[in-house]
């Protein structure tokens, strides 16, 4: 459990803003997130195009392309929710891969070969890839063998974004001296979002039809989630209502505006600035660590890098430099 830093007591005005899970469905469809279980066959872009047709939206964006034959977790943000989904692109991923060795190998030799690829590795993207073919460093956090039968090896790999599992399999075959190829691949996690949270395109279509034809929102609310679910992996800072509109105009967050924050924040970290109702106000770069935030009474806590909330959602309680100048003149 991440420790919490309590700075002050504060209440939020119910007349302004709204808790993420209390948003009207129309608003949720303009700002939300759908975690699809991508089927085998179509490209990620085709899947997103079908999703837009189902929910009758002009704009949606996915986080992390999956090859046509790869299945699994594909987060898709709707309309303004696309401001947030990009934060998932650089987060860690998890896959389950079925590898076929070109001839059977000793199980212990396979385990030893896999262990060699834990940690930082060098990879050159395969010929059919969307990036420049130059050697890159990627980190493999963990590899676990799930099953082995004959030449087939089923394993789970947790890795840095941008790791090519097909290339990993090829390199494993080279180390074993027998060659190997990837038979099937499924993405099971993106950041903190797992395959248990996914829905199919058919689930989404049925839920949307149930809402339109019967007025029942429950099925659609179960598959369209608030955008805040996409940034649950980030450390959070909660701010008082009076600080929000200034943040929406790009102002830095100072200590007096902070009500509480999660511990473990380091300077330079990306953090989520939230209202007391749990709404995402902005994504920001931390300018002080948790220890300083706990002990100091003045200073800049974070500087917004991406404002998400619309200005005017909370009342303005600050003056621009222009207004200050006019006040002095008067």
Walk me through what this model shows.
The chain has 330 residues and is α+β, with helices and mostly antiparallel strands. It contains ten helices and 17 strands. It has three domains: 4-17 and 231-307, Roll (Archaeosine Trna-guanine Transglycosylase, Chain: A, domain 4); 24-89 and 194-225, Pseudouridine synthase (2-Layer Sandwich); 93-190, Alpha-Beta Plaits, CATH 3.30.70.3190. Strands 2, 3, 4, 5, 6, 7, 8, 9, 10 and 11 form a ten-stranded mixed sheet that branches. A seven-stranded mixed sheet has the order 1-14-12-15-16-17-13. It is globular.
| Sheet/helix structural class | alpha+beta
Tell me the CATH architecture of the largest domain: 2-Layer Sandwich
Morphology call: globular
Please compute the radius of gyration using only Cα atoms: 23 Å
Task: Give a short account of the largest sheet.
Answer: 10 strands, mixed
Please count the beta strands (DSSP E, at least 2 residues each).
17
Binned, the helix content reads 25-40%
């Amino acid at each position: 459990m991440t420790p919490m830093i309590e700075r002050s007591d504060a209440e939020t005005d119910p007349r302004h803003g709204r808790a993420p899970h209390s948003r009207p469905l129309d608003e949720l469809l303009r700002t939300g997130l759908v975690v699809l279980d991508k089927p085998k066959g179509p490209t990620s872009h085709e899947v997103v195009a079908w999703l837009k047709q189902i929910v009758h939206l002009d704009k949606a964006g996915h986080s992390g392309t999956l090859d046509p034959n790869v299945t699994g977790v594909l987060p898709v943000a709707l309309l303004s929710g696309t401001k947030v989904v990009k934060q998932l692109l650089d987060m860690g991923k998890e896959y389950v891969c079925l590898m076929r060795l070109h001839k059977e190998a000793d199980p212990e030799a396979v385990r030893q070969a896999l262990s060699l690829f834990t940690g930082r590795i060098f990879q050159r993207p395969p010929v059919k890839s969307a990036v420049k073919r130059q050697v890159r460093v990627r980190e493999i956090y963990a590899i676990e063998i799930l099953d082995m039968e004959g030449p087939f090896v089923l394993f789970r790999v947790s890795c840095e974004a941008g790791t090519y599992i097909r290339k990993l399999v090829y390199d494993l075959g080279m180390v074993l001296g027998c060659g190997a190829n990837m038979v099937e691949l499924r993405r099971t996690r993106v950041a903190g979002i797992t395959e248990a949270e996914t829905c199919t395109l058919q689930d989404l279509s049925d839920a949307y039809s149930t809402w339109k034809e019967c007025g029942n929102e429950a099925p659609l609310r179960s598959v369209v989630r608030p955008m805040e679910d996409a940034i649950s992996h980030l450390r959070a800072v909660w701010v008082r209502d009076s600080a929000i509109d200034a943040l929406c105009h790009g102002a830095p967050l100072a200590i007096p505006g902070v009500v509480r924050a999660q511990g473990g924040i380091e300077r330079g970290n990306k953090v989520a600035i939230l209202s007391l109702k749990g709404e995402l106000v902005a994504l920001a770069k931390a300018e002080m660590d948790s220890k300083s935030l706990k002990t100091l009474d003045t200073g800049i806590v974070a500087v917004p890098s991406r404002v998400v909330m619309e200005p005017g959602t909370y009342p303005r309680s600050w003056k621009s430099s222009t207004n200050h100048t006019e006040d002095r003149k008067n």
